[in-house]
Design goal:
- There is one protein chain.
- The chain has a domain at about 5-30 and about 90-210: 3-Layer(aba) Sandwich (Glutaconate Coenzyme A-transferase), CATH 3.40.1080.
- It is built from four helices and 13 strands.
- It has helices at about 5-10, 85-90, 130-135, 195-200, and strands at about 20-25, 40-45, 50, 75-80, 100, 105, 110-115, 140, 155, 170, 175-180, 185-190, 205-210.
- The protein has a ten-stranded mixed β-sheet, sandwiched between helices. It has a three-stranded mixed β-sheet with strand order 7-6-9, with no helix packed on it.
- The protein is globular.
- About 40% of the residues are buried.
């Protein structure tokens, strides 16, 4: 199985040269540490930054440089700062090529729930609704099952939805999966050492398996 860094490293392989990419809170923020060399990517943070770099080393943090999740970050040469209004203008104008988000649940039709658990207090919905409504491509970085061992890849989300039919790909500690236009999780890759049966047992939604499923290369 992959740890959080492993999930982020695999997702970083989906990033293409010239992309503008928004990294959501949680596992997605780790993707900044694994952008392949030779790939020119501009990372956007909805609190008002283009040109986010990897996380700083311990002792080199600048408390004035934070991402949307209030984590200290670094900037790259040519980085630009602006207000949230302009940032969300970029998002709503579809200037972001790829959005990478965490999720609590994803449905087999591409619905995503990632902002609220009923009965638990939250600070706010954040920018996820705008991102899922506007991004050209959405990849979810998440754990395949919850702490009770129950699947988070479902026939239908049970939590309040963030977006409808918007997720294109999922990377978990067990697998890489596409969501097909007609619905269903199509298994593309297995995490190192993970069997097909493990993935079947961890997936409550419709799982589509065709041919030989390779192990992911990190």
């Amino acid at each position: 199985m992959l740890d959080k860094n492993g999930i982020a490293k695999r997702i970083a392989k989906e990033v293409k040269d010239g992309y503008y990419v928004n990294l959501g809170i949680g596992i997605p923020t780790l993707v900044a540490n694994f952008i392949p060399k030779g790939i020119n990517v501009v990372l956007q943070s909805e609190n008002g930054l283009l040109g986010m770099g990897p996380f700083p080393f311990e002792g080199e943090e600048d408390p004035d440089l934070i991402n949307a999740g209030k984590q200290t970050i670094t900037t790259l040469p040519g980085s630009v700062f602006f207000d949230s209004a302009l940032s969300f203008g970029m998002i709503r104008a579809r200037k972001v090529n790829l959005t990478i988000l965490g999720a609590m649940e994803v449905a087999e039709n591409g619905d995503i729930a990632n902002w609220k658990i009923p009965g638990k207090m939250v600070k706010g919905m954040g920018g996820a609704m705008d991102l899922v409504a506007s991004a050209e491509n959405i990849i979810v970085a998440m754990q395949h099952v919850n702490k009770a061992g129950e699947s988070k890849l479902l026939p239908k989300c049970t939590l309040p939805l963030t977006g409808i039919k918007c997720v294109k790909k999922i990377v978990t500690e067990l697998a890489v999966l596409d969501i097909l236009p007609q619905g269903g999780f199509k298994l593309l890759e297995r995490a190192p050492g993970v069997s097909i049966d493990q993935i079947k047992n961890a997936t409550a939604g419709k799982l589509i398996i065709e041919g030989n499923i390779p192990e992911m290369e990190l």
